[in-house]
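A quick word before the example. In earlier lectures we treated sequence and structure as two separate objects. From today on, think of them as two lines of the same record. Here is MMPL family transporter written that way.
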Amino acid sequence: MRALSGGLVKTVTGRRTAWIVALLGLLLGAGVIVGLGEADRAPHPTDTLPVGYESTRAVELQEQLPTEDTATAIIVFSAEEVDGALEDLEQVVAALDTGVEGPPAFVQPAEDGTAAISVVNVPAQTATEVADSVADLRTDLRESVPDGVEVQVTGPAAVRADLTEVFAGANTTLLAFTASVVAILLLITYRSPVLWLIPLTVVGLADRAAAILATQVLAGFGVPWDESTIGILSVLVFGAGTNYALLLISRYRDELRNHEDRHQAMAAALPRAAEAILASGATVVVGVLTLLLSVTPTTRGLGLASAVGIIVAAGFVLLMLPAALVLFGRWIFWPKVPHVGEEGQAGRRSAWRRVGDRVAARPLAFIGGTLTLLAAMAFGLTQLQLGLPASEQFTDQPEAIAGAERLAQSFPEGASDPTSVVTATEDEQTVEQLVADLETLDAVGSVSVGGQGDGVTQLSLVLTTGSEGDEARAALTDVRAVTGELPETYVGGTAAEAIDQLDSSARDRVVILPLILALVLLALAAILRSVLAPVILVASVIASFCAALGVSWWLFTAVLGFSGLDPIVPLYSFLFLVALGVDYNIFLITRTLEEARTVGTREGVLRALSATGGVITSAGILLAAVFAVLGVLPLVVLAQVGAVICIGVLLDTLLVRTVLVPAIVLTLGERFWWPRRVEPAAAHSSGASDSPVITAGNPVITGPGRHRD
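And the structure line, produced from the sequence above:
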C-alpha cells in the first residue's frame, strides 16, 4: 500500500502522466486482444473426469485399442407399426455413407413393434468433425426415411455433437448479455449519460484481456479447460471488476467534495479505495486457487483461470480507470455533479443511515430476526439431493436426449448408452469367463465384445436398470465386484462416470470447502489484524450461502420441476459466494475501521453504512444480475450455479451486510476488533474514555470506551 500511495498514485493521477497511463492501458489491452488471442486446445475425453477414478482409468485404457478415431451413433426409427417398413429402413441404412469402414449396419426391431434401431460409427478426430458428421447423418436420414416414420440420432456421438452445437456462439451471447446488464445497471446507478461508459469500457477491456491471458496461462501449465470456463470467467471479471469500479468512483466522488482539483481528489481516493479492492481481490484469488486441489482437470482449470481474471480486473480498475477518469472534468458526473464543500456520504442523513439507526435502537432483536429468517430459508438443505440425470442437463432438450428417451420406451433402458468394461487382456479364456460371470448378474441384460487389440479388450454391457439412479449404482456395484477380481479391469461409460463424479464431488467438498474458509479467515485476519471480526464476517457469509442453497433447492425442484441439483453446484456456489460475499463485508468493515478511529466503532459502523450503503447495494445487485446471466448458457448446471450465487449475493447485500453485521458490531462495540484495540482519536487525546460521540442530525450514542496508552 505504501508503494501504491506514493509514486504509483502520483503517476496514475498526475496531470502530466494520467493520459499516458490510460493510453498505455488501452494499447496494452488492445495489443493482447489483437496480437495474442485465446489459446487453442484439443479437448480430451478425460478432461471432465476425476483423476484416478475407475471410469477415468477405463477411458485411458480404452484409448489403447487399435481403432480408428470414431464415435458410435444410434439411429432410432419410430412409427405406429415399424415392422412393415423394416425392408425400406434396411435399404436406407445400407445407403448411408458415414465415412467409416466397417461391417454392414443392421436394423433391429423392438418387441413392441413401434421402434427399431441401427448402430453406425462416424469420424471423431475432433469435436467439430463429430458435430459435422452427425449433422450430415441426420440430414441424410430425414431425406430418405419412408413417410410415417420418425427418425432420431442418439448415442455418444450425437451427445457430443449436440453439446458442441448448443455451445456454438454461447459465450458470445453470454458476453453480450453480461455487457448489456452491466451497462443498464451502471446507467441506473450513476444516472449520468456519460460516466457509465468509462468503467464499462475499462472492465470490458479487462474481460477480453483476462480471457486471453487465462487461456495462455492454462495452456502454458498444461491445465485443461472447457467451453464453460471462459463463460464463467467472463461473468466473474465483469462482476468483480464493476464492483471494484463502483467502489473507486464512489470514493472519488466523495473526495471531489473536498478537493477543487480532480487530480488531488483522485490521489486521495485511490489509496483508500485500493485498500479495500486489494483486500477483496486477495481473498477471491486465494479462494479460487483452492480449486487446484480438485480431482477434476477442468475444475482446476477454472480455478487458475479465475485467479488470472481477478488479478487482471483489479489491475485495470486500479491503474487504467483512475487515469481515465481524471482526464475528464467533474462534469462527467452530470447531472449530479459533486461540488467542493458538499457533505460526504458518511455524514449524510441517507436512507442507509436511517436503516442503521433503526438497527442501532434494537440490535439484538435484529440479530435474532435475521438469523431466524436465514434459518427458515436454509430449511431446504434438509431435503437436498445431488445428481442431475442426462435428460435434465440441457435447458433445451437436444435430439440426442429425446432419442434416448424414445429408445428406452421400446428397448432395455441401457441400450442407448451401454456400460463398458475394459480389461488389459486378450486372452480368450479369460475374456469368456469374464463375459460368463457378468451375464449371471440380474442387472445385466446382455454382454458383447466391443473391441479387441494391443492387449486390451472392451466389453459392452446393456443394463436393465438404465444408467442413472440408485438402481444403476447398485448394478454398477455388482459389476465392479466381478471385474475387481481381474487386474487392470475397469468399468466405464455414462453410468460409471456419473457415480464417480458424485463421489469425486463429495471428495472435493470435503477437501476444498474447509480450506477456503481457513484461507479467507487468515486473509481477513491479516487485513483487519483481528481474530473475532473475521470469524463473524465469514460466518455471516456462510449463513447467506446456506439460505441461498436452500431456496435454490425449492426453486429448481418444486417450481421448475428438476429432480435435484448438479453435484458441482455446492462447490462452485460456495466458493464464489464466500470469496465475493466477503468483499462487501470488507468494503463495509474497512470503512468502519476508518471511521472508528475518529468517532468510535458504534458510530463508525453507522457512518460506514451510510457511506457505503448505496455503492455496495448497487454492486451487489449488479453482481447478482451478472451471475443470473449464466442462465443464457445451455447447461442447467450453470443456471443452477448462477441462481444460487444470485440469491446469495442479494441476501448478503440487502440483509446480512445491511442488518446483521451492523447489528453485531453495534452489540459488541470495540470488542468486535478483538484482540485489536480501536478507539477514537479524540477520546485518546483527551483521556475522556466514557464521553459519548454524537453527530449532527444523529442521536445515536456510542458505548463506553477504554483509554489506550
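Notice the following. The beta strands are 70-78, 108-109, 115-123, 150-154, 419-423, 444-453, 456-463, 489-492. We will return to this example when we discuss secondary structure assignment.
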